[in-house]
Amino acid sequence: MVTERRRSRVLTAAVVLSLAGAGAGIAVVVTPHASAITPPVSFTADNLPAWQTNGIVWAMTQVNGTVFTGGTFSELRPPAGASGSPQQAVNFAALDAATGNPTSCKLSFTATSSTATVRSLVVSKDKKTLYAGGRFGAVNGVKVSNVAAIDIAGCTPKAAFHPGFSATVRALAVSGDTLYAAGDFGTVQGQSRQKFAAVDAATGALRPFTANADESGRAIELTPDGKNVLLGGDFFTLNGANSHALAVADAASGAVKKTYNSFHPLSVVMDIATDGTSFYTGNQGNSGGVFDGRAAFDLSDFGERWRDRCLGATQNVLPYDGVLYISSHAHNCATEGEFPDDGKRRYLMAQPTHHKGTAPAPVDGFVPGTRKLGWFPAVNGGIGEGVGPRVMAVAAKGDTKYMWVGGEFTTVNGKPQQGLTRFASTGDTGVPTTPVVSAGSVRPGEVQLRWRTSLDADDSKLTYRIYRNGAATPVHTMTADSLDFERRQASWNDTAVTAGKTYTYRVTATDGAGNTSALSATASVTVPASVQAYPNQVRADGATLYWRYDDTVSPYVADSSGGGNTSGVQVGAPALRQTPGAVTGSSTAMGFNGTSQQVYSDHRETVGGSYTLETWFKTGTTRGGKLIGFGSHTTWQSGQYDKQLYMTDSGRLVFGVYSGSPYTLATQWFETYNDNRWHHVVATQGPAGMALYVDGRPKGTLGVATHGAYTGYWHVGGDNLAGWPGRPVSDRFAGQLDETAVYPKVLTPAQVKNHFDLATAPSA
């Protein structure tokens, strides 16, 4: 359901700086920043105390520092740990934006023959009247019919305003003298008005405006010039014209001025919001393949600018200071090149209202949406339909702006809080997660320090400080970007080191407000006296992913390539530091149980026309499994998957790509490699086709130069193999893997043989 509000558009975030210590013995130097959060986000992700409901909040608006909320609830209670006793609140509450406490305004929205609910709240232009829509028959005992007008100063219903709507009103919008409504009704004041109507804002008398729809209206909003009304809902026709879910009508007559038929038949518009140049829709769908995200349209010609096709039932959109804030339960943004369906729902997000520079080329006929920003407050799905947040509003008090959120949720940032929460433009207190650090050295004079970038719910650009050998002053400071769904590796090469010496490193992460993480665990490394031939050659030959599996903690797998920074994430806690590894020296291997463990790359990417896969493995399994491959998902089984090396139950090796159908190369039936010895396998594909090598020797070629074109992730130790020739009993590999590398080019046979020769571990 939907509610419409009047929104302030031009407020700007205030600046606040704070500092949290990084730990004893370390002097943390914090550089002042212009904002407490990463621009253009205006609000922290740290929720402030607010009174809460015992039910669902469906409607929200604000005026002069007071936030009005409506929904289906009967009680307000203080936030957890705060003093105060529960208060009766029958489907309505007024709260102070700055304190989160209830005001003295008390209204009861009731019904005699059904459950009362308030679904929309909107304030008049002169800020003197609050209009409410929903399903109710009285306000503080004054009889009404699903719409009411409230005198804000006196907090009393206006008895003279008494329009009769025959069924639920789901959305309201108001001009200077006219109140517009959307809902389920078929008559107003006894006259036919199908799903949309307008009444006099002072008396409730029916206006000539007629925009009859065949299905429910859920959203309504005026264009800033007041000349047009934007209509959203379930409908397929409006005044007889074919237009699904969205239409533009003349504000005086209701005549249709713009129709739309590009939304999926099972997608509906839940919300519409405007800023100075554009309007935005939030859509919800009810089956596979629907449009569940957001679309942006120009107000000049009402044409579509971009469409974000993330799946997750968008309930509310709020444009504010160049950012579109979103309430939904986004669970799959693969179409936008962001995150796949991995079982996690992101209920609050933000994205720019406009593309920076030239918009990307259309995909499937639609210009993709803008990339998500670093704002991810955590709420849950809660009660009701389990969609989490339903409505948002920005209220100002003094120099501080507050983002209020209402809905179905029962927790906020991991702690109990139901129905209502709020965030501020100042006071960022959230500390970034502690970096997980790894150090390696393969040649004299250089240490490579790697870490998985930290996560901060409202800062996407963090500052990292590297401390060497316990010194109080950082030896290096740098910044790196990270998002909730993409935490790429950051790295730095320390060249002021001496062969034969051991060095220790610790790293902190600091956000824009100066909040600093704890020091990372110590990473220790001894610089070799001579070049380690095998890893040095892998790097020299251009690997952009190189997992050596020397990691000491979960879930991070360091990338030791020269600068690819494609780290891995462990799933199911594979066994670390298995010895002996595939290559003689200090390197260790990783063990996989064949049932629940794998590693996937923490970077969504596409694979070019030329590439090489390389890994070492040791196993005695008779259940096969995938050694390495490319897939469209992370923790869940991929729906698209190819560019893979896998083992059959008998121990044969298969290299496969998908180009309209599966194409594979395999070792001979008598060439099996499940003999509990280390083996080296390499697969290449390029313009000349596919090639497979085992233990330095060529095993076959195939003239197929293309593969599946999609964005995805590298997987080691398992992923989907359904439909592939010789599919083993298990898609997951049971055994040890070591020295996994991916190159953006085809290695020559001589390079493959050289890699094998440089390793001295025993092989078949």
What does this structure look like?
The chain is mainly beta. Among the domains are: 1-36 and 433-531, Immunoglobulins (Immunoglobulin-like, Sandwich), CATH 2.60.40.10; 532-764, Jelly Rolls (Sandwich), CATH 2.60.120. Helix content is 2%, strand content 40%. The protein contains 2 helices and 59 strands. The longest helix is centred in the C-terminal third of the chain and has 10 residues, at 749-758. The chain starts with 51 loop residues before the first strand and ends in a 6-residue tail after the last helix. Mean pLDDT is 93; it is low at 1-35.
Give the radius of gyration: 30 Å
Mean pLDDT: 93
The CATH topology of one domain comes to Jelly Rolls
Give the terminus-to-terminus CA distance. Answer: 65 Å
Quaternary state, please? single chain
Largest sheet properties: 8 strands, antiparallel
Helix content: under 10%
Percentage of β-strand residues: 35-45%
Q: Count of DSSP E strands?
A: 59
CATH architectural type of one domain: Sandwich
Shape: elongated
Uncertain segments are 1-35
What would CATH call the class of one domain? Mainly Beta
Class based on secondary structure composition and strand pairing: mainly beta
Output the number of helix runs. Answer: 2
